[in-house]
Amino acid sequence: MDCFVCFAASITPQPRLFVPFLFDVFYFHLNPKLSNIPKKVKVVEVGPRDGLQNERVLVPTEAKISFIERLAASGLPVVEATSFVSPKWVPQMRDHTEVMQSIQKRPGTSYPVLTPNLKGYQQAVNAGAQEVAIFGAASEGFSQKNINCSIDESIDRFQDIMAAAAVDGVRVRGYVSCVVACPYDGPTDPQVVARVSQKLFDMGCYEISLGDTIGVGTPATMSKMIDAVAEKVDIENLAVHCHDTFGQGLANILAALQMGVSVVDSSVSGLGGCPYAQGATGNVATEDVVYMLHGLGIETGIDLDKLVDAGEYIGVTLNRPTASRAGAAILATRIKQRKNIVKQNYEKKMQQTQQEVSHKREQEDAKSDSA
User: Fold this and answer.
1) What is the pLDDT of residue 1?
2) Residue 346 pLDDT level (bands cut at 50, 70, 90)
3) Stretch 216-224: mean pLDDT
4) Range with the poorest average pLDDT among 129-133, 211-215, 232-236, 338-342
5) Cα separation of 161 and 99, whole Å?
6) 3-state DSSP of 250-276
7) Which residue in 134, 138, 321, 351 has the most C-beta neighbors within 10 A?
8) In this structure, what DSSP letter does residue 39 have?
9) Residue 62 contacts by C-beta under 8 Å, 6 or more apart in sequence?
């Protein structure tokens, strides 16, 4: 890597985390080789939809609603709420209407939903959705396994949604799956990714999210792919959606940032996977992404502590520890701080008790002397 961010391990963290020296932040942004790094990044939280859809145990509706509201309270600008797909195919999303109608929506936060067809779109709009997402694949094999049709046929199916959205004033985001490789077809040709992305953009999608669905990408393969797509769709209209199967998620995101991408999809606690891509682990954890972005001096508008709270909440709900390294570190620090507070309170109480006992003995001795 052309640069590094040095963390001050010798200073007291305020409030809980080590912070980068200002010099390092300036160095990062002033380095001409990194001039495309954005000053502000929009983080799209996909945990409630992409994160939970692969969970075998059904999450209670009330827990989903609380999860979404906690995420929004952290300052996330976009929280993908649910998917209006048939419960036959994705049982976890069976309560999409109730979830969408029950969320206490936060001003300034967008709550898009996934709509695979016109019926799903109509249900979503009736439930109050103001933004929807559609999805295509850059792999014929994945397209056939996922929605039982070819790439071109899948995109054609979305024409009705795009027409209806234009009339309704609903924004549409486009996902492209398997942008690096496919579990069925192997490596993906970047030119195919570019072609699919351009089709979705030309149809009216305001933003195209490029998904490394099985998490095999590296900074090199991601950069090559983004280069190809950026020739067809402006970089300002692109987002990256990285799964972390091989631990390359953050590195791939950094590579995308260096190319000027300013929108990043992620999932709190690293939740996720794909029902149609065996072996794919969760998305890159939002806590890790935000920690890195803040360390680079990039504005997100997100409160990391509150984000960790949301991750802790869903972890308790799923009876599972967080997969976020930053989240786990912050939670461990909190536990240590709580233990120290308990210890300090105990020692203070013991000291007060000893002082009270000593004072009482002094009073008794004084009485005995006077007698």
Assistant:
1) 39
2) low
3) 96
4) 338-342
5) 22
6) HHHHHHHHHCCCCEEEEEHHHCCCCCC
7) 138
8) S
9) none
Please say whether the beta carbons of 80 and 99 come within 8 A.
Answer: no
Helix, strand, coil percent values for the chain (each to nearest 5): 50, 15, 35
pLDDT at 148: 82
User: 208 and 193 in contact (C-beta within 8 Å)?
Assistant: no
Structure tokens at 279: 């072996």
Residue 186: count of CB within 10 angstroms of its CB: 11
User: In this structure, which amino acid lies at residue 12?
Assistant: T
Tokens in use for 184? Answer: 């069925």
User: Which DSSP letter does residue 198 get?
Assistant: H
**What residue ranges in the chain does DSSP mark as E strands?**
42-45, 78-79, 82-83, 113-114, 131-137, 171-177, 181-182, 186-187, 207-212, 238-242, 263-266
CA 345 to chain centroid: 38
- List, for residues 136-194, the tens digit of each pLDDT value: 999 999 998 877 889 999 999 999 999 999 999 999 999 999 999 999 999 999 999 99
pLDDT surpassing 50 at residue 19: no
Residue 139 near residue 150 (C-beta atoms within 8 A): no
Query: Closest Cα to residue 301, out of 313, 290, 287?
Result: 290
> Is residue 136 a contact partner of residue 176, using CB atoms and an 8 Å limit?
yes
- List residues with catalytic annotation: 274
Which residue type, as a one-letter code, is found at position 76? Answer: L
Q: What does the DSSP 8-state code read for residue 131?
A: E
